[in-house]
Amino acid sequence: MVTISDVRAAGLLGDPYRADCPTRRILDRIGDRWTVLVVVALADAELRFSELRRRVEGVSQKMLTQTLRGLERDGLVRRTVHPEVPVRVEYDLTEAGRTLLVPLQALQEWSVEHLGEVTASQEEYDRA
Fold first, then answer.
1. Model pTM score
2. Are 28 and 21 within 8 A, CB to CB?
3. pLDDT digits (tens, 9 = 90+) for 46-60
4. Under a CB-based contact definition with an 8 Å cutoff, are residues 47 and 41 in contact?
5. Sheet with 47-48, side-by-side order of all strands
6. Residues linked to residue 88 through DSSP beta bridges, in sequence order
7. Which residues make Cβ contacts (< 8 Å) with residue 72, sequence separation at least 6?
8. Whether 64 contacts 38, CB under 8 Å
9. Residue 21: pLDDT band by 50, 70, 90 thresholds?
10. Is the dihedral of CA 91, 97, 101, 104 positive or negative?
């Protein structure tokens, strides 16, 4: 059985508090607002680019393209090209991407539940 100590000794356990740690790039990816929305949007079904863009209001074509490419590069999203006329491209979550659903949905739910108190706090701060 591999332990955390074994992983740490092999240099494979990240330390996100170190500036040079690759986990920072992972945290940047999953902490991005477009990533959160795209991953949760893909929770229930494969979607085409245009369907994703409609679902995630406000995202530009450029940002959605960059987000999807990054997620695909990181192994979190799968891009499937169907050889039809016209070509149909769909996106869905990989198994690794599915593991993000619980924490990202929790963040989304937290933001909805605490919207009132955060908004009130912002208004109070801005008045001061």
1. 0.81
2. no
3. 999 999 999 999 999
4. yes
5. 47-48, 88-93, 77-82
6. 82
7. 78, 79
8. yes
9. confident
10. negative
Residues in the chain, how many? Answer: 128
Write the single-letter amino acid at 59: V
DSSP string, 28-87: HHHHSHHHHHHHHHTSSS-EEHHHHHHHSTT--HHHHHHHHHHHHHTTSEEEEEE--SS-
Longest dimension (CA), the chain: 60
Of 32, 34, 92, 40, the C-alpha closest to 58 is 34
Beta bridge partners of 48: 90
- DSSP structural state of residue 96: H
Quick one: what percent of the chain has pLDDT higher than 90? 68
Structure-token match 């937290």, residue found: 110
Pick the CATH number of 32-127 from 1.10.10.10, 1.10.1740.10, 3.40.50.360, 3.30.565.10: 1.10.10.10
Q: Residue 70: which of 95, 39, 48, 45 has the closest Cα?
A: 39
Query: Which sign does the torsion angle of CA 80, 82, 83, 85 carry?
Result: negative
